[in-house]
Amino acid sequence: MQQREQSKPFFSVRQKGLSKQIVSEISDRKNEPGWMTDFRLFSLEMFYKLKVPTWGPDISALDFDDLFYYVQPVNEKKRTWEDVPENIKKTFDRIGVPQAEKEMLAGLGAQFDSEIIYKNIKKQYSDKGVIFCSMDDGVRLHPQIVKKYFASVVSQSEHKLAALNSAVWSGGSFVYVPCGVEIDQPLQTYFRIEAEQFGQFERTLIIAEKGSKFHYVEGCSAPVYRAHSLHSAVVEIVAMENSSIKYSTIQNWTSNVYNLVTKRAFVYKNATMQWVDGNFGSKVTMKYPCMVLKEQGARGEVVSISVAKEGQHQDSGAKIIHLGADTSSHVISKSICKDGGRVSYRGLVSVAKGATGARSKVQCDSLILDECSRSDTYPKIDVKEQKACVEHEAFVSKINEEKLEYLMLNGINEQAARSLVVNGFLEPFICELPDEYAVEISRLIDLEMEGSVG
Known about the structure:
13 helices, 2 domains, about 25% helix, alpha/beta, 10-stranded mixed β-sheet
């Protein structure tokens, strides 16, 4: 009964399932230009033509006709945090979003179901020409930039889920950082699914002009419902010459959410792109942050963790495509499975002919906490250039009993000792986060480890 009462404030496209009428209604409600409406309708045609991916985890239980594709929590975006409706504000207050904005963020966005309900950036950065707004505002207010780059990194024809997002996308962030501008505090957007049997399809476009530098952080969560929900985002990033971008994701979905995400960056001459990717919860996660190192000296790094418990399958990894000479990449993947959970690393390293001096190293480490959990590695290496160096290594292990015994001899109980060992295992990921986020991740890991004794 409580869940039904919570759903009353929401507006949704009135029927479940997908149709031309629903896609047109979403575009009309957003007052979009004709080119975006046409883009959506073409994407819908591609969605119908393309097949559901079958090479990864089983997502056959996901019924695309049993979802609401648009839910509007408020009539308009709010300019100040005080203007946000009280029921929504309480949700974000509990996870510390407004406090984070005050203490450590250059800008903050908050998305509730289909819409960004709040977006703000500090004046010192907006005065330098930094744009940090919702993707919807980006389409309306900055059409010349958006139209140039939108769908240039991730095409709607690539696979069924990219086509779906392209047809019904709503919300997400548009970030544009001008030449030479460095932002010394993170920009953050937090995504929350509150409605039941709902699909969230945010679209994020990030442009780093020559010599710029910044850190973008996103977090995601949802309450527990019996029915399945879908999170299917698309993220496109363009890192111009000598720019530097760190993109950190901490996703903590509940076990009824299918988390099926496409993320890709184009990295140009001497630019650096870093994905820091944390995956907790969800029923199924399919996420493989990709970097196309297009020009000489481009550098890329992926540091990820995945934690799976009973009924969960975390299928994550990375895709690195070396096109330019003297490009380099490094992938560190850490995963933990317990209580019958399943983790998979699925990765690609591709070195094109002519990418002389390209270097890539992939490290996959998995920690299995019981006899009924499972870990798999599916690497693909495609090297067409002889003057390149590619390394791949993978390890699967259990918790080191000697370390546990040492900690327990020093007065630490077994539960706490296990959490310490796991936090040490995940240190390469945790140390890439700002201190405040690292503390929260450590707490989240402690919660995940509860009941792991024995």
